[in-house]
Design goal:
This protein is about 30% helix and about 25% strand. It has about 375 residues and is an alpha/beta fold.
């Protein structure tokens, strides 16, 4: 049984840059050493990303048998924007710890580690888990890989899971998912004066016209809404990418990137298929991905325990988490962590030190309750 200081540990993690574009192996090694020193069983799943960087996910288990409680975090961060502040030099001012990842989510990760490393293994009646993924900020890629490749999680699935993303310590029982459709048109490149080219960009116009109508439908038809979220809509978004060309050259390829945020009981699968059908009807090539929303009933044991222990009402959020994939290996999931999503990814990101310390207390009480 080891005792750590949550502020000090968070400062150590912030000072270890792990921006998603780079490898996260060094910070994963550090966390694994902490856990193995305390006699946890560990498992890594690794992969090479599209840029040739080595990435590592970590699962650690204390105790034996099925069920138990998992604490889930990610080790990567968005870019530090170092030109604007000392992103990787942790600083405490006015009760706040500043630094990239302080709230999203090295502070929450540190709080989970401090809580579990204070546990007496002999007192456990159910197993404990720590899960730390890569590339959450790049579309949950690490969690997707982990769920597919972790022998430990497949063999002994936790019953309960806490995703320690920043929620200002309010228990979040549901968040939106993610729908993504890439619709690509192919034209012919030529000098525009010859009339021999075919603009791929112009070929996307009928699809864009349909998207405009779909976006209006989603805003106006309340059967596509869910009032338990803010905003209660699917927030459809679109952008166009073309290969760089001169103004007098027709674009050979153009891709419309469409995204929206699925919600429970809001006809989200229909929306996804409607967009795909439109793209294909206009002759565009489609690749797509649909990640269903996370939902844990308010009446579930984990939600009720979190509400009782936190003293805060359950709520929903519109951002996504690794829970979109981890729900495949963990029966009940709640998002619960220190810090506010409003300052995540910003210059001047911070976490209140008092919330870090309260998070350790809450996580410890959840361990005592379930394990």
């Amino acid at each position: 049984m080891t005792h750590h200081n949550v502020l000090s540990l968070t400062e150590q993690l912030i000072a270890m840059p792990s921006v998603s574009r780079d490898s996260n192996v060094a910070i994963t090694d550090f966390i694994e050493r902490l856990l193995t020193a305390a006699h946890w069983q560990t498992e890594r799943t690794e992969y090479i990303d599209d840029n040739g960087e080595r990435k590592a996910n970590l699962v650690a288990k204390l105790g034996t048998g099925q069920g138990g409680l998992a604490f889930c975090s990610h080790s990567d961060t968005v870019p530090g924007q170092e030109q604007d502040w000392e992103a990787f030099v942790p600083q405490v001012r006015d009760g706040r710890l500043y630094g990239r990842g302080s709230c999203d989510m090295k502070g929450p990760l540190a709080a989970t580690l401090v809580a579990v490393l204070s546990v007496d293994p002999a007192a456990l009646t159910q197993p404990l888990y720590i899960i730390v993924t890569a590339d959450e900020e790049l579309g949950l890629l690490g969690a997707k890989h982990l769920v597919a490749h972790s022998a430990l999680l497949q063999a002994s699935r936790p019953t309960y899971g806490i995703i320690a993303e920043p929620t200002s310590l309010a228990p979040v029982y549901s968040h939106k998912g993610f729908g993504r459709i890439f619709a690509t048109a192919t034209g012919k490149s030529a000098h525009s004066s010859t009339g021999l080219g075919v603009s791929a960009l112009l070929k996307t116009a009928p699809f864009l016209n349909d998207l405009h109508a779909i976006a209006d439908l989603l805003e106006q038809d309340k059967t596509f809404h869910n009032e338990m979220y803010t905003p209660p809509t699917q927030t459809l978004n679109a952008m166009i990418e073309t290969e760089p060309t001169a103004i007098n050259v027709t674009a050979e390829r153009a891709t419309v990137r469409v995204s929206f945020r699925p919600m429970p009981d809001s006809r989200s699968p229909e929306i996804h298929q409607l967009i795909i059908d439109s793209a294909e009807a206009h002759g565009l090539d489609v690749t797509e991905n649909y990640i269903a929303p996370l939902f844990c009933p308010i009446t579930a044991d984990l939600v009720q325990a979190a509400v009782s222990i936190c003293g805060r009402q359950p709520t929903t959020v519109s951002f996504g988490t690794d829970g979109n994939y981890l729900k495949n290996v963990i029966e009940q999931l709640v998002v619960l962590g220190p810090g506010s999503i409003a300052v995540a990814h910003t210059v001047g990101e911070y976490v209140p030190v008092a919330e870090l310390e309260e998070a350790v207390t809450i996580y410890t009480r959840l361990i005592n309750h379930f394990c």
